[in-house]
Amino acid sequence: MVKVLFVCLGNICRSPMAEAVFRKKVEDKNLEDTFGIDSAGTGDWHIGKPPHQGTRDILDQNQIDYSGMKARKVKASDLQDFHYIIAMDAENLGNLNAMAQFEKTGEVARLLDFLPESDVVDVPDPYFTGNFEEVYDLVNRSCENLLSYICDRENIKKS
User: Which domain holds residue 46?
Assistant: First the structure.
């Protein structure tokens, strides 16, 4: 099983959105048995809380399930357990790399590394901007490219 972890600051806006969107793309390709997908935050302010209302609204608009999702904090063991650890921005990428040092076994990258045509390199935090539509668009397009990248790299046949 290929395990993918999405990481943002509080795990209520961007990373749960990416988790839900990526999971839907995996399901649409009938690859649920091939992937393990989760999200976490580098901060602990929202542990146990569901995704932010703005994230839930945009996922509802796009008919993407997020049931059962609760915020959690990234653990050091995640850096060994997940094959792909995808940060939403440079700050979280730096936090992950500082945590990992020599402990990581997976690939750590920013989500927008998989959207080279983007004018921005960090997924903006809608907790502060309120722009959930822009974030959804970036996450949706990046997740499509990320899934293709992983499938190519892991020799997974997409249906």
Answer: 2-153
